[in-house]
Design goal:
Number of strands of chain A: 10
Strand order of the largest sheet of chain B: 1-2
Oligomer: heterodimer
Distance between the termini of chain A: 21 Å
CATH architecture of the largest domain in chain A: 2-Layer Sandwich
Shape of chain B: elongated
Largest interface: A-B, 38 and 36 residues
Radius of gyration of chain A: 21 Å
CATH topology of the largest domain in chain A: Creatine Kinase, Chain A, domain 2
CATH superfamily of the largest domain in chain A: Glutamine synthetase/guanido kinase, catalytic domain
Structural class of chain B: mainly alpha
Largest sheet of chain A: 8 strands, antiparallel
Strand order of the largest sheet of chain A: 2-3-4-5-1-8-10-9
Order of helices and strands of chain A: EHEHEEEHEEEHHEEHHHHHH
Order of helices and strands of chain B: EEHHHHHHHHHH
């Protein structure tokens, strides 16, 4: 079966994917800002040893052993943070499985950052999975924990549960109808944060937004999940209402969708941002049944393989910007066919 | 056009600022722009969260209650981080910092997150069985722990039922029973100890 980022999960017309993260540190080691290279090596070694007994088909990979394109492709899939690939690369590692639904970053902001992923809205299942992993791991190593402050992290913004739950939502109709700012305000009022996946405001090509919790202490894991879930449900509702509104003027919408599809499939070269914008318009067409030439599985494929890193992975060689634009147009044609 | 600052070189850097409706334009050459600190600005750089935090904490440290000011110079015995270090970086150095600066972290967490007490999942709730003498003195604490454990088990039970893992649910139910009975009769204290070890 295809990996999660190529699947369509629950509420996939609006929710692209879900993720839950736990930040953990080892007892007996300083946090990373006070941790020597040698000690950081030691942390890697310590955890490397126990990876086989963790199960889930997880493998330990040092970041240094990955080439630049692979790293970029992992960042694009959201499996590692962009910052993770930048500094002190030689004392960083990831633990990842073939399905890529589990990715543990070692020596990122904290010693351990466990992450689980799924397509669609799957926060409940993800939480069960991450708790299971966390319990196993917590048996084998000793976490830094304090009865008062919970799981201790370098930055106080993560202390407590150490948990961040997030979903990525596609909100083209709210954007088109000019209602997005209202939504952003409401989400913020509920103590959650929402931000554009590819930049803010009008610069956000692709209409993708990430919703996540801010509070990590004085709140239970279940409450965090419930909060993000509730708000997401409300946003789904609003987005669907906005889409129905757009459908009232089907000709206008059809025009937008098919213009995008036309450029996407007939262009001889495509820029990253242009492609993202077109795909967003094509996706809403597919989700509303206006565009039948491709299905949502192909949309996911297009989304993934038109990103610079994954594009180069797909082709199997490194390409410069101009070459990528040409190849991107070719790949789109291949996938659409 | 020549540089406004030195008047010698061609302008390569333009900077416009509008403050309270007053527009100010700067036309500078490469050298002057660098000297005046403009060229170092990286426009693509996202605001680093830790530096943002440190600004926040800086404002904060001036307004700290006098009772917190006393141990400002205190150093963490675990890693040598001082509270000032934390204010500058927004990060603690080790888990011991949370003990050393406990009184000062609490109000910060309260402002930052609206709460300062962990109520989520516990870690290794069942403490490894301590010496018998110590146990008597820790009785009260133990009672608390047991209760939170009971709560956890009850939650687990609900979840197991919801997930239709009935075998697990039965096990959890038995565990809950065991704890409840030991609670009722203190004479069975020893038996409970064994249960706890098994778990």
């Amino acid at each position: 079966m295809a990996n999660w980022y190529l699947q369509n999960g629950k509420e996939s017309d609006v929710v692209v994917s879900s993720r839950v993260r736990l930040s953990r540190n080892l007892n007996g080691f300083n946090f990373l800002n006070r941790c020597s290279k040698e000690k950081q090596e030691e942390i890697l070694e310590k955890i490397k040893e126990i990876v086989p007994s963790l199960g889930y088909g997880l493998k330990f990979i040092k970041l240094d052993d990955l080439d630049e394109v692979t790293k970029l492709s992992l960042v694009e899939k959201n499996l590692i943070s962009p910052e993770f690939t930048v500094k002190n690369k030689n004392v960083k590692a990831i633990i990842i499985n073939d399905e890529e639904n589990i990715s543990i970053m070692l020596n990122e902001d904290d010693h351990i950052k466990i992450q689980v992923f799924s397509a669609g809205q799957e926060l409940d299942n993800l939480m069960s999975l991450i708790v299971e992993i966390d319990e196993k791991l917590g048996e084998m190593v000793e976490y830094a924990y304090n009865k008062n402050f919970g799981y201790l992290t370098a930055s106080p913004v993560d202390t407590g549960t150490g948990m961040k739950a997030s979903v990525i939502v596609h909100l083209p109709a709210l954007t088109l109808t000019g209602n997005l700012s209202k939504v952003l305000r409401i989400v913020n009022n509920f103590g959650l944060s929402i931000k554009g996946v590819y930049g803010e405001g009008s610069q956000n090509y692709g209409d993708l937004y990430q919703i996540s919790n801010n509070q990590t202490i004085g709140i239970t894991e279940k409450e965090i999940i419930a909060n993000v879930k509730n708000i997401t449900e409300k946003i789904i509702e609003q987005e669907r209402t906005a889409r129905k509104y757009l459908c009232k003027n089907e000709l206008e919408l059809r025009d937008i969708v098919y213009r995008a599809f036309g450029v996407l499939t007939f262009a001889s070269k495509l820029g990253t941002e242009e492609c993202r914008k077109l795909l967003s318009e094509v996706k809403i067409g597919v989700d509303l049944g206006i565009l039948n030439e491709i299905d949502d599985g192909k949309v996911r494929k297009l989304e993934l393989y038109t990103k610079p890193g994954n594009l180069q992975k797909y082709v199997g060689k490194t390409l410069d910007g101009y070459e990528r634009e040409i190849k991107r147009a070719e790949i789109v044609k291949q996938i659409v066919k | 056009m020549m540089c406004q600052n030195c008047g010698k070189n061609e302008v390569t850097f333009k900077y416009t600022q509008v403050i309270n409706g007053v527009k100010k334009e700067l036309n500078l050459c490469d050298n002057c722009a660098r000297e005046l600190g403009f060229k170092d600005i990286n426009f693509n750089m996202p605001i680093s969260f830790s530096s943002f935090l440190s600004d926040f904490f800086n404002d904060y440290s001036d307004n700290l209650l006098p009772s917190f000011m006393g141990n400002q110079a205190k150093e963490c015995s675990g890693c040598g981080t001082t509270f000032d270090d934390f204010i500058n970086s927004g990060e603690f150095g080790c888990s011991e910092c949370y003990n050393i600066f406990k009184d000062r972290i609490s109000p910060i967490l309260k402002n930052l997150q609206g709460a300062n007490r962990h109520i989520g999942r516990g870690y290794r709730e069942i403490a490894p069985s301590a010496d018998n003498e110590e146990k008597a003195s820790k009785n009260v604490e133990k009672k608390e722990k047991k209760e939170s454990k009971l709560e956890k088990l009850q939650k687990d039970l609900q979840k197991a039922i919801k997930d239709e893992r009935y075998e697990d649910a039965a096990k959890i139910r038995d565990e809950i029973k065991a704890i409840e009975t030991t609670k009722a009769s203190k004479t069975k204290k020893n038996e409970n100890k064994e249960n706890k070890k098994e778990e």
